[in-house]
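Hi there, hope your week has been kind to you so far. Thanks so much in advance, here it is:
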Amino acid sequence: MTDETDEGHRRSVRLKGFDYSQIGAYFVTVCAHDRECLFGDIKDGLMRLNECGKIVESEWLRSAELRLEIECGEFVVMPNHFHGIVKIVGAYGNTPLNGDIPVSRDVQQRAYCHTPLRSPSRNLGAMVRGFKSAVGKRMNEIGNTPGAAVWQRNYFEHVIRDDDDYNRIAEYVENNPQRWMEDSLHP
């Protein structure tokens, strides 16, 4: 995600010099354009997806089918945003993360069996761009609104450092609908 400065210039909050194609887990948040509630509503602490929300859910899951280097972790579609954990399990970056990464041993072993592809399109940013594009295309098709903005321009990401970080974020994702009224993204 980027922040606007006083001059209106966008500044990145990405980790400078970090390789977002390396094996590891990442938490992403993507907001709807103008934070409009496009994807459904919350009733009694449960997210009720409308047709657009179902598109978001299906395209997130489809991302892992299309990109062998990733797996989708916990996620939630909210009325005006999306939270998800994505695990890069293919060795496409320069070096894997040091230390423990919050993916299972069989996933780690499978990741190292893939032939490394050093393509810049196999990173977190490319995955999120593809997801956002696919959702936007499908939503614009059903709404007959070609080119209409569905998402805000960028997204927020957090590199998940260890199992404790992963578990804290997974719990946050799971409980997000129950906390909707206190959510900073609630309209």
About this structure: Confidence is low (pLDDT under 50) at residues 1-12, 92-120. Residues 20 and 124 are 6 Å apart (CA to CA). The chain has four helices and eight strands. The first strand starts at residue 2 and ends at 4.
